[in-house]
Specification:
The chain is an alpha/beta fold and about 250 residues long. The chain contains eight helices and seven strands, in the order ββαβαβαβαααβαβα. Helix 2 crosses helix 3. Pfam families: Thioesterase.
Amino acid sequence: MTIADDVSTLWIRRYHPATRAGTRLVCFPHAGGSATFFHPVSATFSPKADVVALQYPGRQDRLREPCVNDIGTLADRIVDELVRLPERPTVFFGHSMGAVIGFEVACRLEDKGVNAPHTLIASGRRGPSTLRDEAVHRRDDDGIIAELKLLNGTEAGVLGDEEILRMALPALRGDYEAIETYRGDPEQRLRAAITVLTGDADTKTTVDEARAWSRHTEGRFRIKVFPGGHFFLIPHKQAMNREIALELGV
């Protein structure tokens, strides 16, 4: 069954439905993130673009659902949703873990020949086949919280609210397990273009590791380096929006 342009589902959130949009932006959240992270992006680009934000299980209104702690499984489930959308010229935007999920989803959609993006914007993540020995998901709760503070990706108010933080920890642990156990195929390439956005002081991704995305496309590749760490996109919202607009053609 087709998902209409003004409909949200468990997986697909549309905060500003744009039924007459000529293009689509699909947004993939980071580890521990949720669809609401992209509410400002939706407000910026609707109604010119149909902005779709993915909501993974295990957070917010899906809190009671088990997290999916495997990137391939998560990509398969997202594909099952996106193939039901009406065809539009499409751009994928994913930050950190979301960049990898966007890549795996794009590969699957290209194989199916349905709703594949013409461009993947990979933000704050090294190339899919680069490896680091990371095991944040094996830490105790305090260890995961320490990682969040290091990355500065969660507002201080949330980190200081024990009840909210305890509710978020299972999703964070599951997401970290998914991305830390992921092993990308060095030979896997998209036909779509890849644009990479990265911070020059990101402890999770060096500029050289970000450039490694170039090995995973048969199309155009470009990279843009911003001042800042892993969540460089937050203080550079306007510049990020310009990069997205360039790829959307709006």
